[in-house]
Amino acid sequence: MRSMVQVERWRVRVKGVVQGVGFRPFVWHLARTEGVAGWVRNDSLGVLIEIQGPRSTLQHFCDRIQAEAPPLSIVSDVCHEVIEKQGDESTFRIETCQIESDPLALVSPDVSICSDCLAELEDPTNRRYRYPFTNCTACGPRYTIITDLPYDRDATTMADFRLCPTCRDEYGDPADRRFHAEPNACPECGPAVWFVPGDSGSVCRDDDAIEMVKQRVAAGGIVAIKGVGGFHLACDAHNRVAVNKLRSRKHRAAKPFAVMVADLATCERFAILGDTERALLVSRQRPIVLLRRQPDTHDWCESVAPGNDFIGVMLAYSPLHALLVDRGEVWVMTSGNQSDEPIAFENDDAMDRLKGIADVFLLHDRRIETVCDDSVIRVVEDRSLPIRRSRGYAPLPITLPTDGLPLLAVGAEIKATVCLTKGTQCFLSQHIGDMGNQQTLLAMQRVVHHLLRLYQVEPEIVVADMHPGYLSSAWAERFSKTHGVPLRKVQHHHAHVASLLAEHSVAPETAIIGVCFDGTGYGTDGAIWGGEWLIANAFAFQRYAHLSYVPLPGGDACIRYPARMALAHLFQAGIDWADSLRCVKSIPPQQRRLLQQQLERSFHCVPSSSMGRLFDAVASLCGVRHQVSYEGQAAMESEAIASDVFRKGVPSACSPLHDGHRVVRSDKRVVTMNEHAASIKPYEIAVINADVTQVDSGRLIEQVVSDLHHQRPASEILARFHLTIAESIVKISIKARTATAINQVGLTGGVFQNALLTQLARRRLVDEGFEVLTHTTVPPNDGGLALGQAWIGRQVDCEDFG
Fold it and tell me: What domains appear along the chain, each with residue ranges and CATH number?
């Protein structure tokens, strides 16, 4: 007797990043190959499918969804329920989107141009030849053009452009790679680009506009270019006059610029690429990757990234960029803004705000719904270390280990981001900027409102930093009152540790030894913290140890003047301000007298345990830099000098301590990196045992000054200093482990953007048997703070231990 095939109908729910990534066409093709009937559509929860056929076939269909999903998708869940069969249905179709009241679909980030679209761009026989807005289901704008969910053309800024018949045929053809590609466009029906001169010259469009921009850049001009997520300011990186002109106009004296190249071959001419760096550069995210410069690098690198061993490089990631930057060329591509302002993204606003910087403008008419600056990543021991998480990564969620109330966290004052939670998902926003002015605050407000509208979340809690002077915290207070929701204020360094816990999905009740080093953060005692060892989980924290307090004369004003910080450390250590010390000589005598009076009277001197300020002080003592023009400048230059000591006699292809077993040739003999590192000894670490353990920075400063008096090279002093800080991390962590039996150590805070320190500390901790957590998904700096605030805000109690 023939067995009866059991036919069923399943309703299949697919969750994750499944919109804007070619998922519906993928499902359509899958259904055709499996021979099942039904339909697929986007909705506000993700992708919904109904399929009908033999039970075994339906199960195989669902298994293949997980196993063969499109490369741009992230499938977090596939579940099904059996529903009533529908007659003799025999076809499979894509249906129009359905709007739900509670969206939970995940938005895809913007995706760099794919190889197929790039080939079309360069093919004179293709109708999209040199068309700067070509895209398909595998690439193109997503997050920056989405206005609402579910993802459909009408819910993007591409709704402004009606598809021509040919594009509509592609959109409806299952055999075409633009099948249901929502941003689909061509020269006949899509966005256009045009050139606007800064003077009274004529406007030109399309390919003529692109050629005009290339000519202006080649001639030493500065161009404002409207890109995917905002404007760039561009010039020829090889032209030092143009680069210096851009610095002058943008009021950016020394902060490094990023550059854009067309291919890896161009990049290799001036930078060193490891496998991880290569993979990041050509990834679909196309971030700016910090690369070590070649030892015989050209002079232009010094004007682009002065005093820095690294240069930020990205490959052309949009068709417009691919048309602009030729192979072999290197263009500066920096954010289209005045320093400390949010990036421009609208044509009229850009022409108004950037007219004093740019000579000419390249504009287009595809609206940018969401501003998204370029992401920045550094590689440390073959691991990605995010410096800025933005284009290509935002707004992908971080999944929390537990569910909880929806809330909004507003981050801190610099490198601002916000975080929205819904269910187990944490939506950490793109980089917004530094909250130094009203414009950036308004930009933050736009991001908040966009995320709330996109995910239809009504926060039941708002979380902010406890610093009384932060603009973001003041905004959170107003939001709390306006919306009638409680405001929870979180200690800065607890939030840093919590961001690491959330990133690694550590259970909320699990505590770690959180080593948090940064420049500034308001402490529970009113002091400025920043050199902290916390015993912390998502509920609470105990301050186990910290760097000893030093007066911060003028408060945060010291950030700009490492020499003032050096003199404050000398004062606290009881060391005379001898004229033989370069930091002392850098400050005029009259200012020194005023500073001494201020310190003696404790006038406007906030006590600080900041590790960032200690790095500044030692940099100034060693003569690296007495005044900075951007945050972290002295520390970055100190790291570069110290790293050279560990690379002494080592080819530049070997980054510091990159491989302890790598053999290199030096002075005609074979040495290992570990052998050379062993010749540099740390300073003595003095620990003050009190209610809260302290690492005595005064004793460290005494030893640095002693080395200076004995004319030890500044480079070796800085190398010893880095080793000492790493050893102090280990020493206090061992002490904490003995007291608590906790064996996990987390390294977080902006100081851990320092690759040398991170490597030294991590390796020593591992040697001592610790499990070490570091950041690989969110930045260790304040760009990841909102995630930690959100994770703490989810918990019932945020009081200190004890």
Answer: 7-94 (3.30.70.100), 193-377 (3.90.870.40), 397-490 (3.30.420.360), 550-686+699-721 (3.30.420.40)
